[in-house]
Write a structure and sequence with these properties.
Rossmann fold; 2 domains; binds S-adenosylmethionine
Length: about 375
């Protein structure tokens, strides 16, 4: 099996493909020798890394796919490219970027625990990034400024569907475009794929309506409470604090209407209701919801049209393109993978309904 998706669409540049293939093989060897249990990292990232090692081929195929398109789109040699791995989690994309030979690799995550863990993993296998920036987009922009760095490309996987304010995200990421800036942002929350959409909508209803039991290696940043009941509690507390006389039933309606809001947006809605008697408009999507404390979306379903609109508004040119299915050792599944990937490659953006993930592939000309 290759380090790239079988029948997936590769950049039309053999040198780029070779560079990424060599780096991926190098990382694969290192990862196969990695003892996750011996690492001084959180249980949360141990669980994440173990999952990635269990399906190492698929995980490498995904990361090599994204980074080959990064290299092709930037049009620069890897050694001269400054790369930001946004929302890097346990840090495997940064590891691969380093193994491929990217000149500067900046890892980021909003979760402090992951920032520290990713550095530990990088050190353990001799592929440490140049910087580990913990924080949101504005912190990343500030970190590039303070280091005098100019970014060439932003890569991420399974991050944009969690970012609370996606419009602010694109606005702030565009500030990195001091020169040509490439975005390659993959997400498994593929709204165009009917099965994925159905499954995720079901998942939204579970987190919105049900309290959950902790699992081993649980992330302490996210709540296990039903999002609806937590919002109702936050609303009740704030209403009491500001002396609101709203009835319990109107506060119930407000809890339903604030689905997809977090933190101050919720308290502001309580204050607005008190001041004007007005409720916020009903949520635009029928199930999308987020953690009311930290704004982490539960797999935010966004349409390709919506994402295209955000790109255009911030001066990016690009497309929402389909991703590919990982290889399988099961012959029947592998036959299906080959068929689907061939069809996706042929169809281009129209292949999104067949794809397991989508990729925001865009370029800003720079200011
Ligand atoms: C599903 S994980 C994916 C991690 C990693 N990219 C991977 O593919 O393994 C989502 C990551 O995005 C991070 N994240 C969520 N919102 C963020 C934000 N606004 N800024 C930076 N990171 C964020 C989370 O902390 C988490 O590590």
């Amino acid at each position: 099996m290759d380090v790239f998706y079988e029948m997936g669409k590769l950049p039309p540049d053999a040198a780029v493909v070779d560079t990424v293939r060599t780096g991926t093989r190098r990382l694969e060897e290192k990862l196969r020798g990695l003892d996750v249990d011996a690492l001084a990292i959180s249980d949360y990232n141990k669980r994440y890394l173990r999952e990635k090692l269990r399906s190492l081929r698929g995980s490498l195929q995904l990361n090599s796919h994204l980074l080959s398109w990064v290299l092709y789109q930037t049009g620069k040699p890897a050694a001269q490219t400054v790369l930001l791995d946004y929302g890097g989690g346990s840090g495997t994309l940064s590891l691969l970027a380093r193994a491929i030979g990217f000149g500067t690799v900046v890892y980021n995550d909003i979760y402090e625990v992951s920032g520290a863990d990713a550095r530990t993993v990088g050190q353990a296998i001799g592929l440490e990034a140049d910087a580990y920036v913990v924080g949101d987009t504005n912190d990343v922009v500030a970190a590039f400024k303070s280091r005098g760095l100019t970014c060439d490309a932003v890569v991420s996987y399974d991050v944009i569907e969690h970012v609370y304010d996606i419009e602010k995200f694109f606005r702030e990421i565009a500030q990195l475009a001091q020169r040509r800036l490439t975005l390659v942002l993959g997400s498994g929350a593929n709204d165009a794929n009917p099965k994925i959409r159905r499954d995720l909508e079901r998942q939204h209803l579970v987190v919105e309506l049900k309290d959950r039991e902790p699992v081993e290696g649980q992330k302490d940043r996210d709540t296990l409470r039903s999002y609806l009941s937590l919002r109702r509690e936050l609303i009740g507390e704030h209403a009491k604090k500001i002396g609101s006389t709203g009835s319990a039933s109107i506060l119930d309606v407000l809890a339903a209407r604030t689905r997809g809001m977090a933190g101050e947006d919720i308290t502001r809605a309580v204050e607005h209701l008190k001041a004007t008697g007005e409720l916020p408009a009903a949520p635009r999507h029928r199930t999308n919801t987020c953690d009311p404390r930290n704004g982490n979306w539960a797999e935010h379903l966004m349409t390709a049209d919506y994402l295209r609109g955000l790109l255009g508004r911030e001066g990016f040119e690009g497309e929402i393109v389909p991703g590919f299915w990982p290889s399988s050792t099961n012959p029947a599944k592998e036959a299906a993978v080959l068929g689907l990937n061939s069809a996706i490659s042929l169809l281009g953006p129209r292949g999104l309904p067949l794809a397991p993930f989508y990729v925001v592939m865009a370029t800003h000309p720079g200011r």
